[in-house]
Specification:
Length: 110
């Protein structure tokens, strides 16, 4: 989808698509699962937990932060990340609304 085509869609549709794109890599899902379980973490913990290179994890953290899924604080050389609760609740609601709007088993459907 080209940059100029976003105006064809609602802000909610664009937001949900951006969230889905950010969730579209298994490493990012693993990072989010780890953060949910830990409630917070130091960036270095993820290297040991996931077995990926520090640079790779940093890139995935940047993507998740840009999409609003995580927030972080910097103290010296240490960066702590946690789930951004506002974005988490919003994307959860958007996905639930989409999935719950389907009634299922429509006999007229191909």
């Amino acid at each position: 989808m080209g940059i100029t085509k976003k105006d064809l869609f609602s802000p909610e549709q664009n937001d949900l698509a951006a969230g889905a794109k950010a969730l579209g890599h298994p490493a990012r899902i693993a990072i989010l699962q780890y953060l949910v379980a830990a409630r917070a973490c130091i960036n270095g913990d993820l290297v040991q937990e996931l077995g990926l290179a520090q640079a790779t994890i940093s890139q995935h953290l940047r993507e998740l932060k840009a999409a609003g899924f995580i927030q972080g604080t910097i103290e010296g050389t240490s960066v702590s990340y946690c789930i951004n609760p506002e974005r988490w609740d919003r994307i959860k609601s958007e996905f639930l609304e989409l999935f719950e709007s389907y009634c299922g088993n429509d006999p007229t459907c191909c």
